[in-house]
Amino acid sequence: MARNKEAVVLLLDVGPSMHSVLPEVERVCSMLVQKKLIFGKSDEVGFVLFGTDDTYNELQKEVGGYEHIVVLRNIGVVDGNAVGFLQNLPRGNFPGDFIDAIVVGIDLLIKKFGPTNKGKQRICLITDAKYPIKEPYEGTKEDQVNTISQMMQTHGIRLDCIVIREKLPGADLRVMEENDSLLDQFSRKAIAKIVHVDSPTSLLGALKTRNISPVTVFRGDLELSSTMKIKVWVYKKTSEEKFPTLKKYSGKAHSSDKFATYEVKVDYEYKSMEDPDKVVPPEQRIRGYRYGPQVVPISSAEWEAVKFKPEKGVKLLGFTDASNILRHYYMKDVYIFIPEPGNQKAIVAVSAIARAMKDMNKSAILRCVWRQGQGNVVIGVLRPNISSVDNIPDSFYFNVLPFVEDVREFQFPSFRSFPSSWQPNEQQQEAADNLVKMLDLTPSEGEEVLQPDYTPNPVLEVSYCFTQTVSPTCYDKIRRFYHFLDLKSKQPDADVPPLDRNLRGITEPDPAVFSCHKSVIDNFHKNFELKEKPKKKKSSKRAWRGKPSASSEEEGVDGEASGFQSSNLMKDSSNINVEKIGNLNPVQDFEAMMARRDSSKWVSKAIKEMQNHVSDLLENSYEGDAYSKAIECLLALRKGCILEQ
Hints:
By secondary structure, the chain is an alpha/beta fold. It contains 21 helices and 15 strands.
């Protein structure tokens, strides 16, 4: 099996207590298969149902037992037909035993791969764990879980368990607690992850539909000093998921050509501007960088010599109070520093420093160059991450910090400087407080809504529906996009089908919350009544250009005045020794300074000050009240520059 390719066995509980959520389970599992058609075309999947009326699995035939478990699809390479198995799952009438289902799933993987492909086999269990587990023939249930966990470790099989816990009236809490304890035992003894969800939206994000193998960004020394170094590995903790890469395809190939790839290849040719028919070869081309009005050519060898080439390494620059690192300084992705696996000294050293930083409320500042030849240096903050699990060592989280060129400063006046009539009164403040409390995502009972770990990106989820490829036998069973294609083939003006309601719940407020708290919203609306401000009619730029300046009107000079008239105007102002452009009569001051001939500095000074004055008028204008004056100054400036060439 190739790198990043995995085998997945879905264990789905179809017992009586799961009937209400099976439509969501079908949707989520179908999405897993659809994504594998995009990202993992060589992945293999198998489906096992438990709690069914029938029994069909090899273990039952070989050793007996394992009843009400059906192998719906044996492990095989993912294809479009696999989605068809997940449509309209049978509803069983018997309680599901998830321990037996896990054993059947392990049996499928071992018979398929044997001792090979360790770490690339996964079991996904979806159940509500509501019914009691059968007593084993020998030992206790805990002993049975230990035996299964040991077998999973031996063959490198991982377990992802999603426990659906909606409001279940009449559920036996004792049985549910016992089942939760058994599942937790899997997470302690084997490579297992247990997730509890209470809504369809959380279920949508709890099942990891794409397997991404962790790749280290850096392996080496964390240098605390020249004599003290700790071996660490660095991984990305979060990274933005991009859209699938779309390639260009052409429909020019003949439909009967079985070997046509339909791919489009793009070639670029560089031609001389003097001779458009002459192609310039690569050896005669060079990059140029604009420097003022000219273009400076720089060869690739010169560019390589100019590049900053720091040495690979991670060095500690110092410590600072955690309060000094503001949240909005964090940039880009989050990294995690872990001690080198198996290195006991590194584990102890990282743990000691992390716990000291936690106790003293400190953060570390690092200089990082992840790889040799990297063209930039990263400065970032290292924060302690104290583990709450015994078998997982302490670690650090790392965030990139901005340089001064990366910071955007936007100065806004304080609300306290506004008059009291602009500030909220007690009733308005209380209405706003109640609105915030109403929309709290952490209810008094239950877990927080829209947790990042279980909330899928709705944009990506919708895009996957538009990029999947399936066989014709499964055409009518694939949601949204294929349904849309079918509609378009019959009705060219057909609309796109609506967005899935669970995905809509991620991007839009919950209507139930708003309906239950209508009085709070009405009270907020009542206290903050919005009125539309009438728009003022703006004068056009053409009108500004045609408007004569005040000084021109006084002297009888319009926008088309001759040079002779302008010269006379400056001569009339030459008797006044003006040294600075004031705010009262800036045009007259400018013309007086331009007319002075006792020194050559006055012309350049007048032009510079008038430029600054025009900029100040525009920047400090309120709703355009200084625009007309700025136009007058600009006309005078233009006229003076033409006269002085």
